[in-house]
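Sequence design from tokenized structure. All designs in this work follow the same two-part layout: the structure record, then the generated sequence. An example of the structure record is given first.
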């Protein structure tokens, strides 16, 4: 077999039925059996493996998308109590902080996100917002910062001079963390340890993908992913 580039991925693209938009999807990742292994061997994102900390990718706090994202999380945080949020008493009236260049992230407490419950907490380790949403019978994606519920997916929009948008949905790579990503001892989409799920990503993360692209586009995507056969060029399909 000829040598293949190390990071070779197949993409699927099609036009949006309702907008001036082209969708591109990382079919290689979406068809893979990646599965989040937080609490089940996740090595974290420090420069050395730290599975015993159970911090996952929460060590640096969450970057908020915009003010609406902040407001959503503030509203959700107000519904948490001491049974679901370990650091409720340290939150005060602000769960965010402003970093360099004006970026806003969740505050850090004891070297990780203020919403991260640590090992030994009676309410359970992991994201307090996630626990709170499940306890309330609601969707965690409606409580958590956008970046948190989208990971390991990443959406990028590119607009050309005529206003046509190309939207790319792909796996979250080390580079998407910025310069620090190269220093991680481990990143989940790089490691075979995280590729042990029973079903493909486009099924296990259906709720998240639908939230990002909408149900109509998701259905179009699934039809292509369920039929992994060579696709003739549109010009040739018209001829037929």
């Amino acid at each position: 077999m000829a040598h293949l580039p190390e990071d070779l991925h197949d993409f699927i693209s099609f036009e949006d039925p309702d907008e001036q938009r082209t969708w591109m999807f990382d079919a290689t990742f979406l068809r893979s059996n990646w599965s989040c292994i937080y609490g089940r061997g996740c090595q974290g994102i420090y420069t050395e493996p730290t599975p015993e900390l159970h911090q996952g990718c929460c060590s640096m706090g969450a970057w908020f998308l915009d003010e609406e994202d902040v407001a959503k999380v503030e509203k959700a945080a107000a519904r948490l109590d001491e049974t679901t949020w370990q650091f409720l008493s340290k939150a005060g009236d602000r769960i965010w902080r402003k970093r360099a260049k004006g970026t806003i992230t969740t505050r850090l407490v004891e070297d990780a996100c203020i919403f991260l419950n640590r090992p030994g907490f009676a309410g359970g380790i992991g994201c307090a917002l996630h626990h709170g949403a499940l306890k309330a019978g609601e969707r965690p994606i409606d409580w958590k910062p956008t970046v948190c519920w989208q990971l390991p997916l990443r959406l990028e929009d590119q607009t050309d001079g005529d206003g046509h948008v190309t939207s790319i949905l792909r796996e979250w790579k080390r580079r998407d963390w910025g310069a620090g990503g190269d220093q991680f001892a481990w990143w989940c989409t790089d490691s075979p340890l995280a590729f042990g799920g029973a079903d493909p990503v486009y099924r296990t993360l259906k709720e998240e993908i639908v939230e990002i692209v909408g149900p109509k586009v998701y259905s179009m995507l699934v039809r292509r992913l369920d039929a992994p056969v060579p696709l003739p060029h549109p010009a040739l399909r018209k001829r037929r």
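The CA atoms of residues 153 and 171 lie 5 Å apart. We note this feature because it recurs in several other targets discussed in the main text.
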